[in-house]
Structure formats: structure tokens, C-alpha cells
């Protein structure tokens, strides 16, 4: 069996991804006690894992350094590259939302300023609504932008809603659902077809089974 390299997203979806892999029988204990290490050769099977930032998952897969990538659809939607997506892992579910302070008026005639980590997504969304807005790109802690008067509203991902609540913001519009996806390097799919497809099939069957049990 050829070694399969998998790029995992650090942070938010890391634990649920590891859990999903373990549910299909891939022992990931070395990923759970990882300290600050970022590249892991599985001592159990022919998998190598790298832990990187979401947008870098795309880069590693695109460049063929990783065969498979696991990353949120928010990142895929925002990026201009179009990786080959094979599976919705149905974890890491959240939503793209428009949020602001309670006094925000979405129907105000003035040109809105929207702060976001996702400028392409926000631009596309408002464009489709036929609304011309100004976008300010922010790298993090977007929630403070309307509080401090930098923007009228934000476009951001909302999972539990805790960050919004704790900062006194409310959701004005749910834009689209987000979940974690499995992407594949097309050359890897040819060269390591058996290995890649085996993993994808196992995951797909497991996800389908999980869905059946919650019905
Ligand atoms: C996201 C998002 C919000 C928060 C929402 O940031 O930008 O700040 O999570 O989650 P909640 O609804 O569960 O409170 P993330 O944690 O991904 O970190 P980042 O700002 O470093 O990108």
C-alpha cells in the first residue's frame, strides 16, 4: 500500500476530524497527544498527517504534497482555487451569517460597510442580492467591528453563537450552511486510487450509517 498523506485543518475542526477517522478504525492517538508537532507518520498504518491552517490545506493538496485534505466549505467557498471535492464529512457544521448590533437596519438605504474574514463570500452574497456594499477585510475578532464603529455589520461563521452573544451581536440573516469537506489531489487519485478510494468509501459508508441511526 502506498503511503497516503492527509492534510488536516488545525483548530476548530481538528478534534471532530480525528474522532471521525477513529470511528472508521484509523488509530490517531499520536494526533491527540501531539504537543507542538505538525507532521505525523502513523505508527499503525500507511498514513502521514500534516496539521496546517485551513487555507494551507488547499495549497498542500493543490501542490500534491498532500494527497487528501480535510477542510471547511467556508474556506473552499472563499478561495478562488477549485479543488476536487469528494465528500461532505458532515462535521464542523456552522453557518455563514450576517450579524450586527441589535440597532442595525438591514434595509437602510445608505451603502453599508461590512467587515469580514471572507471578502469574496460577502461580496458574492451581496452582489447576488443586487446590493452594493463596501467590504473591509479583517483577520480575526470580526465581532468587534460593528461595536467600535468600523463597520455596520459583519459576515462571519457562527457555530454555537456564543461569540456573537458575548459581544452583544445578533444574527440578521443566515447566508448558507458550512460543513467539513474531503478534497483530493487529482494526480493522487490516479496514482493511489485504491488507497484514496478505500478511505473515501469507508468514510462515506460510515457517514451514511450515522445518518441512518439518527433517523
Ligand atoms: C470563528 C468565527 C467566530 C467564532 C464563532 O472564529 O469567526 O469568531 O468562530 O463561533 P461560535 O458561534 O461557536 O462562537 P474561529 O474560532 O474559527 O477563529 P478565528 O477568528 O481565529 O478564525
TrEMBL record:
Lineage, opening ranks: Bacteria, Bacillati, Bacillota, Bacilli, Lactobacillales
Free-text comment about domains: Lacks the C-terminal regulatory region which is replaced by HisZ.
Keyword Nucleotide-binding: yes
Annotated localization: Cytoplasm
Assembly and interaction partners: Heteromultimer composed of HisG and HisZ subunits.
Catalytic activity annotation: 1-(5-phospho-beta-D-ribosyl)-ATP + diphosphate = 5-phospho-alpha-D-ribose 1-diphosphate + ATP
GO cellular component, one term: cytoplasm
E.C. number: 2.4.2.17
Pfam families noted in UniProt: HisG
Name the UniProt record assigns to this protein: ATP phosphoribosyltransferase
Amino acid at each position: 500500500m502506498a503511503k497516503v498523506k492527509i492534510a488536516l485543518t488545525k483548530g476548530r475542526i481538528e478534534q471532530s476530524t480525528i474522532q471521525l477517522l477513529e470511528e472508521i478504525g484509523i488509530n490517531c492517538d499520536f494526533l491527540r497527544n501531539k504537543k507542538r508537532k505538525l507532521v505525523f507518520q502513523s505508527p499503525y498504518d500507511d498514513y502521514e498527517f500534516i496539521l496546517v491552517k485551513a487555507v494551507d490545506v488547499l495549497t498542500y493538496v493543490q501542490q500534491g504534497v498532500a494527497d487528501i485534505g480535510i477542510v471547511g466549505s467556508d474556506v473552499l467557498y472563499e478561495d478562488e482555487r477549485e479543488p476536487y471535492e469528494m465528500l461532505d464529512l458532515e462535521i464542523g457544521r456552522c453557518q455563514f451569517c450576517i450579524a450586527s448590533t441589535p440597532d442595525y437596519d438591514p434595509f437602510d438605504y445608505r451603502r453599508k460597510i461590512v467587515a469580514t474574514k471572507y471578502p469574496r463570500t460577502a461580496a458574492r452574497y451581496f452582489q447576488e442580492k443586487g446590493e452594493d456594499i463596501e467590504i473591509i477585510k479583517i483577520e480575526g475578532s470580526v465581532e468587534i467591528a460593528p461595536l467600535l464603529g468600523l463597520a455596520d455589520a459583519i459576515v462571519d461563521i457562527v457555530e454555537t453563537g456564543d461569540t456573537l452573544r458575548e459581544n452583544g451581536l445578533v444574527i440578521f440573516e443566515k447566508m448558507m450552511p458550512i460543513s467539513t469537506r474531503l478534497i483530493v489531489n487529482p494526480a493522487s487519485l490516479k496514482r493511489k486510487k485504491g488507497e484514496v478510494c478505500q478511505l473515501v468509501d469507508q468514510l462515506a459508508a460510515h457517514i451514511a450509517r450515522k445518518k441512518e441511526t439518527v433517523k
